[in-house]
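Justification of resources, computational component.

The compute hours requested in this renewal are based largely on the per-chain cost of generating structure records like the one below. Each record pairs the submitted sequence with a full structure-token output. That output is archived, and it is also reused by downstream analysis tasks.
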Amino acid sequence: MSRIINTENAPAAIGPYVQAVDLGNMLFTSGQIPINPKTGLVADDIAAQARQSLENVQAIVEAAGLKVADIIKTTVFVKDLNDFGTVNAAYEAFFKEHNAPFPARSCVEVARLPKDVQIEIEAIAVRS
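The structure output for this chain reads:
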């Protein structure tokens, strides 16, 4: 049986989807764009956008009773693959700050993202 995860600590869904679905042993988040859930604003800087997207994923994972270290796979969508180095540095710092192992990851360039942001990140987490 699945359970819908919803938290005010991450941006509300802007379409017909949920923040995450918890299947008991696995959690699947929807893609998180870098909207600050408190202000509704998006930073201009790609590093700040990457960090905010990861913090939004974290909020959802924690709302499901898991932690960053339980994330086993992420998919990163970027508007410009030339930003890969900057995104990679922010991503690495985020997981190191949480003493979490790096998950498996895919990173792809896309033509456009919702609200014209520069990045979107989704995750899969597993309960041990």
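The chain has one domain: 3-126. Residues 46-63 form the longest helix (18 residues).
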